[in-house]
Amino acid sequence: MVFDEQWFQLARPIVFAVAEISPITSGLSISKEQVELFLSDEVENPLFSYDISRFANNPVDEPVSAVRSAMVNSDTHAVVIELYDKKLQRQLERQALLQATLAGDDHAFFEQSKTLYGVPSKRYISYVAREVLRLCDDKKATHSLQAKRLRAVLGKITAKPTKISQDILPEPVKGSPRIMSRQQVLDIFTETLTRLELTNWTLMERQDNHSHFVVLPERQQVLVPRQQALLSRTDLTEIKTKALAEHEIGVHVLRSARGKQQPLQLLSIGLHDYLGGEEGLATYVQQQIEGATEFYGFDRYLAAMLAVGSDGVPRDFRGVFTLMRDYYTLVYAAREDGVDQANTAAWDVTIRLFRGTTGTTPGCIYTKDILYLENNIELWNLLIDKPHVFDQLFCGKFNPLLTHHITALQTLDILKEW
Questions:
Q1: Which of 103, 130, 151 is at the close of a domain?
Q2: Do 379 and 297 share a structural domain?
Q3: Phi and psi dihedrals of 201, rounded to 5?
Q4: Among 80, 198, 309, 384, which residue is least crowded by beta carbons within 10 Å?
Q5: Is residue 116 in a domain?
Q6: What pLDDT digit, counting tens, does each position of 347-388 carry?
Q7: What is the C-alpha separation between 187 and 393, in angstroms, rounded?
Q8: What DSSP string describes 333-355?
């Protein structure tokens, strides 16, 4: 028995029509001239432009209303109706987010982002501030200026006691050889697909110069970066690639495929707010293979804190970039290419943070990236406390950290006793 066959066929195109992450990432462009002017301090902020009108103007209000009305008047299980209602509401909010980007309305964009993903919370702010201040103390003898600037900012944050500790993380794997060709990556990813019996999924080449992997459930494809983009990643070793394959295929792809086998088809594309738990799980399994010195997404969380003004001072693109460059200067202090690495890393994280906005309005950011640190930490805590639930986490795309997801799936007899 399938609970939602009819509704899934109606809702699926709505979900894929309004998926904001790809449009505001690939639709954002900054000219080479603007990058150079920014890095040479000739302009305060780089000029962003977006090609997203075909996404932002894709109307979903009427289809959403039609599905909602039809479901309410059907004999569908009440839990299923509630799950679809919340999922469809999120699609309306994503459409509003894209429309705010198209209008250049940073404040409206930030409000929608907060609704979808939240804002940095005090518990994690305290943890991040504490760890960065420790780093400042360690590096103040050799990099006093950067340490002093960061301390002046983060010292304003009231550091509440927190039990969060990296001691639970596995030791990083060292000595793995670097990846020297795209074919090596393809071989590792193909082996992972074969091992997990994901025969209907294919590996495709990205058509841009981005260096990250992308999973497309609607096409059953995993996009692998081009050779030049892959080899530009100095961190890409054999063990790192195996860890990434487990992240992308062993979690994102596998949960989609397993979701298709469930009586609730919505699990193949994700319940509302599933993403935090999914990224928490994906980063958890990645860390099982490659190890870690810090919880995943630490630097992204720091950047978000600085932007929204956790210290009382909201910041624009320039303000965040400058402080993140100080942070990465301390992180890469022991490397010969530390200055270049700090500049590149600061640029990349600040672009991620301000995508969807103009980059010029202090405090207005895309808050999705706070999900990584928060959910990575909480997935570790969950599986330390309840290791027996691990296999159940792969029955589809849901958030194991949300009680109402667990309750709903148990009510439908999809999850066992938690």
A1: 103
A2: yes
A3: -100, 145
A4: 384
A5: no
A6: 999 999 999 999 999 999 999 999 999 999 999 999 999 999
A7: 27
A8: TTSTTHHHHHHHHHHHHHHHHHT
Structure tokens at 153: 């900012």
Do 107 and 58 contact (CB within 8 A), yes or no?
no
Sheet bearing 221-224, strands edge to edge = 202-205, 221-224, 214-216
Q: Based on the domain organization, do 183 and 314 belong to the same domain?
A: yes
Work out whether strand 202-205 and strand 221-224 pair parallel, antiparallel, or are unpaired: parallel
**Are residues 210 and 274 located together in one domain of the fold?**
yes
Do 71 and 157 fall into the same domain? no
Q: Tell me how many helices (H) and strands (E) the chain has.
A: 19, 5
Radius of gyration of the chain (CA): 22
Residue 110 lies in a domain: no
For residues 169 and 159, what is the distance between their CA atoms, to the nearest angstrom? 22
- Decide: 112 and 97 in contact? Cβ < 8 Å: yes
At which of 103, 134, 167 does a domain end?
Answer: 103
Q: Please tell me the chain's helix, strand, coil percentages from 3-state DSSP, rounded to the nearest 5.
A: 60, 5, 35
As given in the structure block, the two tokens for residue 105 are 């309305």
User: Six-digit token pair at 279?
Assistant: 């990224």
Is the per-residue pLDDT at 159 higher than 80? no
CB 43 within 8 A of CB 34: yes
Same domain, 34 and 162: no
93 lies in the same domain as 134: no
- Residue 223, classed as helix, strand or coil, is strand
Q: What global pTM score does this model have?
A: 0.95
Q: Does residue 158 sit in helix, strand or coil?
A: coil
* Nearest residue to 369 via CA among 283, 264, 270, 297: 297
How many whole angstroms separate alpha carbon 68 and alpha carbon 7?
Answer: 9
Q: Is residue 113 part of a domain?
A: no
In one-letter notation, the amino acid at residue 35 is V
Q: What does each C-alpha distance from 272 to 77, 88, 101, 275 come to in angstroms?
A: 17, 8, 22, 8
Number of domains in the chain: 2
Is 415 domain-assigned?
Answer: no
State which residues form the domain around 371: 122-399
| 225 lies in the same domain as 192 | yes
- 20 alpha-carbon distance from chain centroid: 12
**261 shares its domain with 369:** yes
Are 237 and 176 in contact by the 8 Å Cβ rule? The answer is: yes
pLDDT digits (tens, 9 = 90+) for 129-147: 999 999 999 998 889 999 9
In the chain, the N- to C-terminal Cα span, in Å, equals 23
pLDDT tens, residue by residue, 25-55: 889 999 999 999 999 999 999 999 999 888 8
